Amino acid sequence: MTAAPQPEAPIWFLPMNIGERDTTDQSPDWHYLGEFFQDIGLGDRVRFAVYRSTAEPAMHRLTSDEQKSYGARLIAVFSDPPTAPAAWHPVWERDELRPEVEKLARAIARG
Predict the structure, then answer these.
(1) What is the pTM of this model?
(2) Which of 50, 65, 74, 99 could form a disulfide with 108, with the two C-beta atoms 3.0–4.6 Å apart?
């Protein structure tokens, strides 16, 4: 009996350190490319920042920061140009903002 084919896994591991702040902005391994904001209602906005790997220029990280005391969180790892599916934090997998957030992040990644 043969095993069913497994879905293609994202090329990069996305650590799920829930409750921990992301430190991408402090790492020499990542270069800040830009940011954008999305309104989420009731006057609140989320800041999204895009970073490029210094070791692998196609690899990017996307962080979100609701500008509260808990700081930025890593929400996605993706390649641009796309060579594999993006890895999203499970909370973001079905979020209605995700398509627009991904589009804007990729635009920043492309420069």
Answers:
(1) 0.80
(2) 50
